Amino acid sequence: MRLPRLFRTTVFRLSLMYALAFSILTAVVLGFVFVSTQNYLTDRITETLQTDLATLLEPDADAAESKGGRDTHDLIDRIKEIQHFDRTRGGIVALSDPAGKILAGNLLHWPQTVARTDGTARFDINDSAIPPALRQRSDDFDVLALVHALPNGNWLLVGQQLADEEDLSEYIGSLFILALFLITLIGLLGGVVMGRAALKQIDQIRNAAQKIARGDLTERLPVHPKRRNEFDEIAIELNLTLDRINALMKGMREVTDNVAHDLRSPLNRLRTRLEVALLDHRQLLPCQNILNESVEDLQGILSTFNTLLSISQAEAGIQRIPFSPQDLSALCRDMGELYEASAEEEGLGLLTDCPTPLRVLGNRDLLAQALSNLLDNAIKYTPRGGRITLSTVKLDAWAELRLCDTGIGIPQDQYTHVFQRFVRLDTARNLPGNGLGLAQVLATITAHRGEIHLSDHHPGLCVQILLPLIPTEQ
Q1: How many Cβ atoms are within 10 Å of 402's Cβ, its own excluded?
Q2: Which domain holds residue 98?
Q3: Which end of the chain has fewer CB atoms within 10 angstroms, the N or the C?
């Protein structure tokens, strides 16, 4: 896997940004801890030095009240008495006169970098004022000191070596740098790992897409059975789209085969009749009969193509079809009157019951064609003496159109199959038709955002169509 491609992945960039942001946050937190620790250690040492200074300046009970505390000789004696703490914690003490001469303590002279003013001061352990024997270690570190001016003009300095404290600070600083390094490294490694995982899924999707682009519509994008991340969700949706495309392509192939099969016979008959007409051109009446039969065959072919065009227009959706408010009940009454005579000729009774106006948004021509196909099928497949009922009723927010007959019906396991193009059941093979009627009905109802259901009428078939009503305020 090429690294530049890995670096371009969104997952890697997001991981890197997250690692950078987390590193900055960690640096801020650890920096605050580091500074707080140093300040805490400094405050504790300062408190200790203040205690040492107070101990040195504490007056004896026998000291003269007028002097306000220890005199110089008493202070020198006190410094000599407490110098034992030097060996335990690296303590430093010095008493100097106003000129800077050391009167008592463990310093050789007053530190060069320490000003004789009240307050705290820092100076290096390598200052020549500190004898080498007093130093805790030979490496470089600081001394924290507290300077105090005495009433007689002398200066008192107490201090403590910071070797252990600086070691602790350096240790914390090392942990700080190590933590930042590990966080950044883990962030980079995490970005690489997640980026590689994302690229693996992308490569799988790309390979599947290449196979589909080469014509293998049975190929599907991989979906992990348990993971179900965002890639799997996209793959599921695309697979559903591919299933639909595959079904459409399969249907297109079937339509093409059926069209070729259904048109072969009338076209062959047409060619034969025209050839006969050419041979019998001197006999006018036979030629007229042949031409009339040919026109009928051509009319059947045109009807098939017109029905296919109507289905395509309906499946194109409402964006390409002008829709307007329609009264479904009025349409049903008109279609009932239109087909009443045809039903009587076939010895059938056609009852229309559509009293209540039901306003739906639709295209009257498409709805009329769909209802015409249903009525044609009902009349065609209902034996003489049968009955056909056409009714409409309001069901909540839906307008229901129900067409029931007492004909031969449809097996329940074929309810879905009969809506496909050019599908004809065995019981209808000997009757005229092209198998496109119910396909056109389904396309029209779907374009109107409605539903169509089939049910057994015992005997016969009931077709239920549901179309959304127009709200009253519209």
Answers
A1: 18
A2: 10-168
A3: C
Gap between the Cα atoms of 141 and 185, Å rounded: 33
User: Do 368 and 454 share a domain, yes or no?
Assistant: yes
Distance (Å, whole) CA 205 – CA 218: 14
Rounded to an integer, what distance in angstroms lies between the CA atom of residue 399 and that of residue 328?
Answer: 8
- Decide the pairing of beta strands 387-395 and 349-353: parallel
What pLDDT does 418 receive? 79
Domain boundary residue among 137, 168, 199? 168
pLDDT tens profile 388-401: 999 999 988 899 99
Which residue from 159, 146, 157, 48 is spatially nearest to 103, judged by alpha carbons? 157
Residue 87 pairs in a beta bridge with none
* pTM of this prediction exceeds 0.90: no
Structural domains counted in the chain: 3
Report yes or no: 105 and 91 within 8 Å, Cβ to Cβ. Answer: no
> Cα–Cα distances in Å, from 315 out to 51, 233, 236, 368?
95, 28, 25, 16
Residues 75-80: contacts with CB within 8 Å, 24+ apart?
Answer: 75/104, 75/150, 75/156, 76/103, 76/104, 79/104, 79/105, 80/104
Distance from C-alpha of 451 to C-alpha of 438, rounded to nearest angstrom: 13
Q: Is 113 a domain residue?
A: yes
**Dihedral pair phi/psi, residue 87, rounded to 5°:** -80, -15
Q: Average pLDDT for residues 239-248, to the nearest whole number?
A: 80
